[in-house]
Structures are given as structure tokens and as C-alpha cells.
Amino acid sequence: MIKALNTAATGMQAQQTNMDVISNNLANSSTVGFKKSRAEFEDLLYQTQKEPGQATGMNSVSPTGVQVGLGVRTAAIQKNFDLGNAIVTKNPLDLQIEGAGFFQLLTPDGQAVYTRDGQFKRDPAGTIVDKNGNALQPQITIPSDASGIEITATGEVRILQGLSDPPRTVGQIDVVNFVNPAGLKAIGKNLFVQTGASGQPVSARPGLQGTGFLAQGQVESSNVNIVDEMVNMITAQRTYETNSKAVQAADQMLQTVNSLR
What is the pLDDT of residue 91? Predict the structure, then answer.
């Protein structure tokens, strides 16, 4: 009976983690560039009482054996990098990557970080930064007298300074891709950092090497589907409840054993 208590308890812990992941997805359903996560589970070590194929007689073997599972654990929580929907803002510094890739930023302490959030702004020096002041890489500065900003699908940044002057190119926005984006480490603030699992960043012109083109004046919404998450939440809640019933049943069986005379 003690094994049943522990096994059911691991199921409750796993569903608690599952609910934590679902809650984070729902909480960020309106976060620009957010990518939903999925909890993945695996069974624990089995207690083998009889090996499959073990001899049970002169000319017979056990076709299945006897193996008792000892529960479940969280094996991974994986990010899903499917594209979100486009939100049109008409802000000239709002950008969406229409496909794979990340914007590369540089934090004030010199760390390279990556994001799908394309809500950019200008700091007092005219440098293009994100909402937290991290500079877009390669660094681009917009002159204070610029009357218009145009960003092409391939990342070329042009400005207008006079009614009769032709557009002038002031920089090029490249995007970065990874062999395994799911291996990136999320650090909050819509940012990711490289890890050994993600592989090395590969910088490319938008639209080349499997990356997406840029779209100016729009951003990417979260890829969270509220209906799917609500269904997942109900499933996790019912699974947690069922495991708690297994704990109660094991407790009642132990109580029966203790009451034997």
C-alpha cells in the first residue's frame, strides 16, 4: 500500500507542474511574442517481480512478466515556437518576423539576448532599443531630424529627412536562428539566451537561410490558444483529483490492514 501512496503522490506533483505551465500560458496570452510551453512526463523506474520471457515451466515462459510502475516525473517543459497572429499597430518601429528567427539584442552589461518581441523604440540618442533599453543588434541610430522611417522586408532601414530628399539607408536589421530553438533558456522580459542545447546563433538577412521576412507596423501576438489551454487545465484538474482519490483509497486499505485482529 505504501507504494500506491507514493505513486499517486508523484502523479499529483506532476499535475501540479502541468497546472503551473498552463497557468503561465494563460497569464501571457496577451504578451507580444510569447511562446507557449508544454509539460512532458515520463514514467519512473519499474519494480520487476518477474522478467518478461522468464521460464515458468519445462517448456513455457512468461509472455509479459510482472512489472509494477513507481510513478511519474516531469521530463521536460518545451517551448512551442509556432507563429502567433499579426497585430497591426502602424508604428514604424514595430516589427514582426514572418517565420523563423529572433531579433538579437545587447543588454547594458554586454550580454547577447534574443527575442520575438518586435516592439522597438528610440532612446535619447536615437538608438533603436526594446522596452527595457536593450539595443538592437547590429546597432542602428535614427537621426533626430528624420521625418519618416521605412524598414523593408529584408531588414534595410531607411529614413526620410526632407520632402525632396531621397530615402537614406542608415542600417540593416539581421535576424538570428538556432538549430534547436526549444533549447534556448527563457530569462523573462520576453528574452532568451543561448545554451548548449540550442546550438550557436546563425545570423542571416531576413528571408534567407530559412528565416522569415520582416513586416513593419505590426507585431506578433502570443501563440497561446485560450480554448486549448482551458481544456488542458480541466484535464490536469481531473487527473490531479483522480490521483488524490488513489491516495485516499490506499489510506483506507492501510486502515483496514491496521484494524485486523
Answer: 93
Of 214, 98, 117, give the one whose Cα is nearest residue 156. 214
pLDDT interval class at 136 (50, 70, 90): very high
Among 131, 99, 127, 151, CA closest to 32: 131
Number of H helices, E strands in the chain: 2, 20
Q: Which residues contact 20 (CB under 8 A, 6 or more apart)?
A: none
CA 77 to chain centre: 8
- Put simply, whether the predicted model's pTM sits higher than 0.85 gets the answer yes
Cell numbers that stand for 26 in this block: 494563460
- With b meaning 16 or more CB within 10 Å and e meaning fewer, what string describes 133-157? ebbbbeebebeeebeebebbeebbb
Domain boundaries, the chain: 2-80+224-258, 86-220
Query: Is 34:223 a contact under the CB 8 Å cutoff?
Result: yes
